[in-house]
TrEMBL record:
It comes from Celeribacter baekdonensis B30. Transmembrane segments: none annotated. Keywords: Hydrolase. One of its GO terms (molecular function) is hydrolase activity, acting on ester bonds. This is Sialate O-acetylesterase domain-containing protein.
Length: 512
């Protein structure tokens, strides 16, 4: 882990008023033409000092210069900027976050990840100045609010920052459907979001493009708005990006006592659309973590995953405790990679020994993934750490017990039974307020296993998973108990459609 202080990272994106239209060094006073000390901008895959004609643009400047000066006056912290803007671009096209994303959106995400891979930063927010092009078309203007909300949600998702602050400039232009876009922006259903006015700023003839003085004022307004958000940005560094995996670090410090490496569970669609597993939970606890995302449910059956593990291990200092954590496929991954990561402890919730039908011909679950995987090349037992403490949580009353029975265990393993959880052991523990206990003493002597068992049992009636599992298991032989469990499950927020279907099945049996 790099030990120098992380800089504040600001993202800037949009069209001509973010790029800066027909402005250059001659539009600045002599005192504003030099380098801005302590500030840098991303350009062609590297950081360069922030100045006029710096960044991806060959010439000119936008609001970033005055933003940087104002930001440093307010914070005194080093500043990094990733900026991408193109005149005449549309949110409905180049910046679209739908599907694969438009070319500008894709490039922005790629540039930000590349910049974040160079060292630790505190990602403070996105500055957005765009919408004039969309205001030219009535349909685009009407859809702007929905598209902008989707853009923000997708960007936060792709960067792994669910609460990324956003500041947007309200556009100014004559004619068209400007007010539709302005109103859509002002009323957007986006958290951690503010807008700044631009109508009173100095514009060139035509009232679309800002002058140099207008850009200067805009940058100051952006800085004032963004700096007003709560100062709680975590340190982040992007560790791995490919077509198969993402991995990034997130924590309050560069020197934590311990780090959790969180592995993803199986997904039905695109795993890159998921947050880091347990991300919200770890953030609330202040636990440093490396989050891994897999595009598909592949059970980590490729060589790349070990290259990624090497990169993660190289980032985390040897003296820092490392714990792997995951559920289902993620639990398998935590065990599989525990050796490569030199893990001190593994928290494996409902793991599999294998889903390879040649090894577990009786397994009926995860059939699509098992068929799709082209050869199971990595057996878990060949890679699991022989020294790490391995805590396995599972339901002994469902099919997971057959998987657990295949583990070759010794005194470094603890098999903890959580009855009536089905495969959703993590949710069962969360429902019964037992999950936090898994992380007590995580980087010391380990979680209090007996307390976890007791809490999971004592508070089982608070768990919708407990009641749903009980209802399913008792449906055939004890329908009265199943109906009772259905009612209790509804009381604690269980899935109505599943319970309705189960109740209908029970009623049908009574009438036959």
């Amino acid at each position: 882990m790099a030990q120098h202080a992380p800089s504040d990272l600001i993202l800037m994106a949009g069209q001509s008023n973010m790029a800066g239209h027909k402005v250059g060094v001659d539009d600045l006073a002599e005192t504003e033409r030099g380098l801005i000390e302590g500030a840098r901008i991303w350009a062609n895959g590297a950081w360069v000092p922030l100045a006029v004609d710096a960044g991806y643009q060959k010439r000119g400047f936008g609001p970033e210069l005055s933003f940087a000066r104002q930001w440093q006056v307010q914070t005194g912290r080093p500043l990094s900027i990733v900026k991408l803007a193109k005149g005449g671009s549309y949110l409905s096209r180049g910046w679209s976050a739908e599907g694969r994303g438009g070319p500008l959106y894709q490039r922005l995400v790629a540039e930000v990840r590349a910049a974040m891979a160079t060292g630790p930063v505190r990602l403070r927010g996105l500055i957005w100045m765009q919408g004039e092009s969309d205001a030219l078309d009535h349909e685009d203007a009407q859809a702007y609010g929905t598209r902008f909300e989707g853009f923000v949600a997708r960007l936060r998702q792709d960067l792994g920052v669910p609460d990324l602050p956003i500041v947007a400039g309200l556009i100014t232009a004559p004619g068209g459907h400007v007010d539709l876009v302005r109103d859509a922006m002002a009323s957007a259903d986006v958290t951690a979001f503010k807008t700044v006015e631009t109508r009173d700023l100095a514009h060139r003839s035509g009232a679309v493009h800002l002058t140099a003085s207008g850009l200067a004022a805009l940058g100051q307004r952006f800085a004032d708005a963004l700096s007003s958000f709560e100062d709680s940005a975590l340190i982040r560094q992007w560790l791995w990006t490919s077509d198969q995996y993402h991995a990034w670090y997130e924590g309050e410090t560069l020197t934590p006592t311990g780090v959790v490496v969180s592995l993803p569970h199986a997904v039905a669609d695109d795993g890159f659309a998921e947050p880091g597993f347990g991300q919200r939970f770890f953030r609330k606890r202040g636990t440093a973590a490396v989050y891994v995302r897999a595009r598909m449910s592949n059970w980590f059956q490729d060589d790349e995953v070990f290259e990624m593990a090497k990169a993660i291990r190289g980032f985390i200092p040897k003296e820092t405790k490392l714990v792997t954590y995951g559920a289902s496929m993620g639990a398998y991954g935590g065990l599989l990679l525990s050796g490569a990561l030199a893990a001190d402890r593994v928290l494996a919730v409902a793991p599999q020994y294998s889903i390879d039908r040649a090894t577990v011909p009786w397994e009926k679950r995860w059939s699509k993934a098992a068929k799709r995987i082209d050869g199971f090349v990595h057996r878990m037992e060949d890679h699991v750490s022989p020294t790490a403490q391995k805590l396995v949580f599972y339901d002994p009353l469902n099919a997971d017990r057959n998987q657990i029975a295949l583990f070759d265990t010794d005194d470094t393993w603890s098999l903890i039974k959580i009855p009536l959880a089905s495969h959703q052991v993590a949710q069962r523990l969360l429902d019964s307020k037992s999950l936090p206990l898994l992380f007590e003493g995580l980087f010391d002597d380990g979680p209090p296993v007996n307390d976890i068992r007791k809490a999971a049992r004592a508070r089982r009636r608070d768990s919708k998973i407990y009641w749903l599992t009980l209802a399913n298991k008792s449906a055939e032989r004890r329908p009265g108990l199943a109906l009772y469990a259905i009612d209790r499950c509804l009381e604690v927020g269980g899935p109505k459609w599943k319970l309705k279907k189960l109740r209908e099945t029970l009623s049908a049996r009574e009438t036959t």
